[in-house]
Inverse folding.
């Protein structure tokens, strides 16, 4: 039920409109999160400006997959990593470029790296 309003909003949006989406991953299985990312990337490719805030690497990967599959041109998506600095009044935004093959130009510390950290602990590294 949480995803339905997002899907309806995408389908009802016209090119040039602005769609703001917060945490589209809520209550979705990881595969559904990937598909949500693909949908939002395709909406951006169709000319809808999508402002997305997510904590899901699955949603990010869905966007990257859409670029890789040429469902969305890499220039139609922009990714930013935000980090609050100690004593800061606003977050620092780091732009990350998405290449034509869906790869990111950089992977900052703290940016969707928890799976790697967890696996390192489990594997004793």
């Amino acid at each position: 039920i949480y995803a339905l309003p997002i899907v309806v909003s995408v389908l009802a949006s016209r090119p040039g409109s602005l769609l703001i989406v917060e945490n589209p991953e809520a209550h979705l299985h990881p595969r559904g999160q990937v598909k949500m990312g693909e949908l939002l990337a395709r909406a951006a490719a169709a000319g809808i400006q999508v402002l997305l805030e997510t904590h899901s690497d699955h949603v990010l990967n869905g966007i990257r997959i859409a670029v890789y599959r040429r469902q969305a041109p890499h220039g139609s998506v922009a990714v930013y990593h935000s980090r609050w600095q100690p004593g800061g009044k606003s977050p620092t935004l780091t732009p990350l470029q998405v290449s034509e093959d869906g790869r990111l130009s950089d992977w900052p510390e703290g940016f969707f790296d928890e799976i790697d950290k967890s696996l390192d602990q489990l594997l004793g590294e």
Q: What stands out?
A: The chain has four helices and four strands. The helical segments are 4-12, 30-45, 57-68, 114-122. The chain has a mean pLDDT of 92. Strands lie at 18-22, 49-53, 79-83, 92-96.
